[in-house]
Amino acid sequence: MKEIQECGADHCGENGEYHTVVYGGPIFKSPVHLQYGEEYVKI
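^ that's the sequence the OP posted. Answer follows.
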């Protein structure tokens, strides 16, 4: 948590730091294919 705070992020995720992505499941006709790119960090 100290490292998270030192980066300027809220360790509780109060500012939207943590996100969940659902890419497959029974509600989807087919899985969503994700393409990973560069990491973006706002400081």
